[in-house]
């Protein structure tokens, strides 16, 4: 009985040794066959932007030459704009990386301009803003987790305030009491990306007289470099705008001033327009 027990123990020990040696051999085979992936910076882009904030995407590329798919194990990522740290996101954990192929890893960061400067309009006068990304990622592989440093510096385009001006107004329905004036407001997006404009509002003066308020309503997205004209009618009472009456009746020239604001995102920016316009009839 004792002899049989000893034989069983010896058989179990021999089996374990065989299995362990097989695992070690398999792991050694993996190490010899496995090729280290390459992790490189690809591009920086604005995925969305307004005059209040922007999302900056840093795109990296992971080239996996192995016949086995990989996955993202860990992310440690920080993003700085003009030397100030901003909110940074990460690619979803567990992101699968294709076998024998290239996969893009997108690292987004939301930049709120009010967090960078006391006056947002000052920041919007810049052509570009400096950014710096730093950190690391861990990629899960058959031979363990491989870490790659994540570091890049560059600039991104700062959103520009749209150009806003009037074309020649058209006067209609002229009576002794007043007239209707149609103001063509021209809005040009000076950016290389689409920009949302939630609205333009302002108090109007003609020849120094208050004549009322104009509002465009929500203009939605302005396409890159696009120009849009919005025709805004305004009924003017001559009794309250005597200095404007002569220009409107005769169809001559008069100084037009709009004191208002432009809204994009959550940001409201002052808008001051002053033009000498010819009133057409």
From TrEMBL:
<dbReference type="GO" id="GO:0009269">
    <property type="term" value="P:response to desiccation"/>
</dbReference>
<dbReference type="InterPro" id="IPR004864">
    <property type="entry name" value="LEA_2"/>
</dbReference>
<feature type="domain" description="Water stress and hypersensitive response">
    <location>
        <begin position="164"/>
        <end position="278"/>
    </location>
</feature>
<keyword id="KW-0732">Signal</keyword>
<feature type="domain" description="Water stress and hypersensitive response">
    <location>
        <begin position="41"/>
        <end position="155"/>
    </location>
</feature>
<dbReference type="InterPro" id="IPR013990">
    <property type="entry name" value="WHy-dom"/>
</dbReference>
<feature type="signal peptide">
    <location>
        <begin position="1"/>
        <end position="26"/>
    </location>
</feature>
<dbReference type="InterPro" id="IPR045043">
    <property type="entry name" value="Lea14-like"/>
</dbReference>
<comment type="similarity">
    <text>Belongs to the LEA type 2 family.</text>
</comment>
<dbReference type="Pfam" id="PF03168">
    <property type="entry name" value="LEA_2"/>
</dbReference>
<protein>
    <submittedName>
        <fullName>Late embryogenesis abundant protein</fullName>
    </submittedName>
</protein>
